[in-house]
Design a protein that fits this description.
ARM-like, ARM-type_fold, two-stranded parallel sheet, HEAT repeat domain-containing protein, 15 helices, mainly alpha, flat
């Protein structure tokens, strides 16, 4: 998922409030995808990164089993016990369908079609997944979260938007906001603007640095939407705007200081220095 490296950067070096939000967002990512991003750091002895996967069910890959063995060898049984490694269930025996029965694809096949099919196959597979979901509570299947995350970077804008709707319909709100953040950098300005509106109206603070970066977007409508989104976010946008203003070229600084002045005038931010 494209957002995981960005969130990891915030978790590693951001202020305390942002680190907390980044950790919460990271733990909504598919656990095995997150673990794959963390693996080089963990293998290098960065045991602190285990906090991000402690208690999450992970596939028992040889790499993760080796990490657990190292932890036990170093006497870190507390950390080793927090690694929940799962070899995965054995495949259930398939019961032959009655003669003449119409075969309906199972979830695994629908996810495969959504991941590897053409645009129309993807549309049908996602529609069937929604139909089977039936409006119940958030779906916790990590395979579904992973497929939706991949489709958010599909070459076809219609597929990306359909995947985003599936995220909103079937997945938990924190996961949906994480998926929405992927679309902030979408090549279609209208999709990027939609993502800005969704995240700013949700007051999702981990998006603030990305919204500040979008103030330099090549498309004026995206720049305007980012500015309005930051104004809607209010006070939490101030530190990132000040940081950007302090490092901006003189001819670009006003795009940040102008927003700081507007936030100060409404009382949402501290007075600009």
């Amino acid at each position: 998922m494209p957002l995981i490296p960005l969130l990891l950067g915030w978790w590693e070096s951001g202020p305390e409030g942002l680190r907390t939000e980044a950790a919460r967002a990271l733990r909504t990512a598919p656990p095995d995808v997150l673990a794959d991003h963390l693996r080089p750091r963990i293998e290098a002895g960065g045991w602190g990164y285990l906090d991000l996967v402690t208690g999450l069910r992970l596939l028992g890959s040889p790499d993760m089993r080796c990490v657990r063995e190292r932890l036990r060898a170093e006497g870190r049984d507390d950390l080793a016990d927090g690694l929940l490694l799962d070899e995965g269930p054995a495949p259930a025996p398939r019961t032959p369908a009655p003669a003449g029965a119409v075969r309906r694809p199972g979830r695994a096949e629908l996810l495969r079609l959504a991941r590897a099919g053409g645009p129309e196959q993807i549309r049908r597979a996602l529609a069937r997944l929604v139909e089977e979901h039936g409006g119940r509570g958030p779906d916790s299947d990590p395979a579904l979260r992973e497929v939706v995350g991949e489709l958010l970077t599909h070459p076809r804008p219609g597929v990306r938007l359909h995947a985003h709707r599936i995220s909103r319909t079937m997945l938990a709100r924190p996961v949906h906001l994480l998926h929405t953040a992927v679309l902030l950098d979408d090549p279609q300005p209208d999709i990027s603007r939609m993502a800005i509106r969704t995240l700013s109206r949700a007051a999702w603070e981990p998006a603030v640095p990305s919204l500040v970066a979008l103030l330099g977007h090549t498309h004026p409508t995206v720049r305007r939407e980012a500015a309005e989104g930051l104004l809607l976010m209010g006070g939490p946008a101030v530190p990132a705007l000040r940081h950007a203003a302090a490092r901006a070229r003189p001819d670009k600084r006003s795009r940040y200081t102008g927003l700081l002045d507007r936030l100060a005038a409404t009382g949402d931010g501290l007075s600009t220095p």
